[in-house]
Amino acid sequence: xxRIPIVTNVLEYxxxxxxxxxRTLSSRTLVLNLLSSPGAGKTTLIERTIAALKDExxxxxxxxxxxxxxxxxxxxxxxxxxxxxxxxGGCHLEARQVMAALSQLALKDVDVLIIENVGNLVCPTAFxxxxxxxxxxxxxxxxxxxxxxxPGAFVAAQVIVINKLDLAPYLPVSLAKLRAAxxxxxxxxxxxxxxxxxxxxxxxxxxxxREAVRTKHAKV
Length: 220
Hints:
Elements: H1 6-24, E1 30-36, H2 42-53, E2 59-65, H3 70-76, E3 82-86, H4 95-102, E4 112-116, E5 133-139, H5 146-149, H6 151-156, E6 159-163, H7 175-185, E7 191-193, H8 202-218
Parallel strand pairs: 1-4, 1-5, 2-3, 2-4, 5-6, 6-7
């Protein structure tokens, strides 16, 4: 009898559930899977996005973290549905966890579902969560070499957000080198540089979401 490595079993099962998520969700719901290192600014990006687009689009958020509801509490303050997934030490979300979270959301009332993955640029990359797009968030505070050190996440991304532009004058980091590193790994990926603190560049991110929603609707 042929033996299949357990990792293959895990990934195949996850892929099966991810496809079920796509069938379950309305074809008009844009699903974004946000990946980053801890502290890159995923939660702040979510907060600012909801605040800017809440009169145009209906949001829901699935928050992944090892423990606590700290990030979920922050997002819930914007009066959007939020479901917390605590992984109890797990370094990534899996499709089965997201599927369980969906049962707590009124999906017919959701235009954009944002999944904030556990802060990690390695483990989450291999696990499809039924998303339309993986969004990798990196920041100037992490240095300009992360795309070269963690290529898997950047290759998998449909869009890459560079955050914390406001700190550029205070850091020994080159935005040009960071962009060049991204281009080396994923030359055709859209790259949006912004600051969640000052709002510089944020309109480009909002326009990307609007266009992604329009594209999803056009496929209906």
